[in-house]
Specification:
The chain is of the alpha/beta class and 286 residues long. The protein folds into two domains: 25-115, Rossmann fold (3-Layer(aba) Sandwich), CATH 3.40.50.10860; 138-261, Rossmann fold (3-Layer(aba) Sandwich), CATH 3.40.50.720. The chain has helices at 6-25, 42-58, 73-84, 104-109, 122-129, 138-149, 169-178, 193-197, 243-246, 260-280, and strands at 2-3, 32-38, 61-67, 91-94, 158-162, 182-186, 202-205, 223-226, 230-231, 237-238, 252-253. Helix 7 (169-178) links the parallel strand 5 (158-162) and strand 6. Helix 6 crosses helix 10. The relative contact order is 0.17.
Length: 286
């Protein structure tokens, strides 16, 4: 069993990004990222704080627009319009989830697709489905980069994705399909989940339910990618997989924390740099 170490890889990627940004700054281009944070969700605040720190370390200019939970949709749209028109901002992301009074789809559709570094705009979603260059959601992109680092070629492999969200499950499915994998995607209405996961060469899970995937649900030698993150009553952070029991059966497995999580922020920085290079008129491989 080998650990897929996202923490180590993300550090390597961030160092590379810093070097590239240093070169960009010689051409008077400083990548800029704007974040919209609505309300006081503790997880969202923590995540945005981690993004700010990563931006500072790599040389990305970042600004966070903090808004109260009671904010109107019109005010958010006004802020997004301002960001869309700001030539010094390359990337904009709206931290989800948003309060109930806000139409999330309308907010995401208002983003300039060229600044949509989270990859949630329908334009970028469509290009991903078609296998065209686009901004790809950071967590699934981080998973693919992690597999690449460990020379794991998914072409021809059976992949079971547990969770069908627009943020993780669906883009993960499309990335795997584009890479030549055979994909089985499961969700809340799937019957006999074990029948699906136990046949897969790779199991990717991200639903936010501690202990959902147990040792008997994966086959010997499977690769397990745990995207879930849950805090137990004792304060311990765990994923969706029963790690201690399942890990010995796996050829590779991601830990929680230290697996996919750090890769998400690394890919956000990579997408922001990609947008900045497009502004300059050059390109970058995603």
């Amino acid at each position: 069993m080998k650990i897929l170490d996202g923490k180590a890889l993300s550090s390597k990627i961030r160092a590379q990004i810093k070097d590239e940004i240093d070169d960009l700054k010689k051409s008077n281009i400083t990548p800029g990222l704007a974040v919209i944070l609505v309300g006081d969700n503790p997880a969202s605040k923590t995540y945005v704080g981690m993004k700010e720190k990563a931006c500072e370390e790599t040389g990305v200019y970042s600004i966070v627009h903090k808004m109260p939970n009671s904010i109107s949709q019109e005010k958010i749209l006004e802020t997004i319009k301002m960001i869309n028109e700001n030539d010094n901002i390359d990337g904009v992301l709206v931290q989800l989830p948003l309060p109930k009074q806000i139409d999330t789809e309308k907010i995401l559709e208002s983003l300039n697709p060229d600044k949509d570094v989270d990859g949630f705009h329908p334009f970028n979603v469509g290009r991903l489905v078609a296998g065209l260059d686009s901004f790809v959601p950071c967590t699934p992109l981080g998973v693919m980069r992690l597999l690449e680092e460990y020379h794991i070629n998914v072409q021809g492999l059976d992949v079971c994705i547990v969770g069908a969200s627009n943020i993780v499950g669906k883009p993960m499915m499309n990335l795997m399909l584009n890479a030549g994998a055979t994909v089985d995607i499961c969700h809340i209405f799937t019957k006999n989940l074990k029948d699906h996961t136990s046949k897969a060469d790779i199991v990717v899970v991200g639903v936010g339910k501690a202990g959902l995937i147990t040792e008997d649900m994966v086959k010997e030698g499977a690769i397990v990618i745990d995207i879930g993150i849950n805090r137990l009553e004792n304060g311990k952070l765990v994923g969706d997989v029963d790690y201690d029991a399942t890990a010995p059966k796996c050829s590779y497995i991601t830990p929680v924390p230290g697996g996919v999580g750090p890769m998400t922020i690394a890919m956000l920085l990579r997408n922001t740099l990609k947008a900045a290079k497009k502004r300059k008129g050059s390109s970058i491989e995603s």
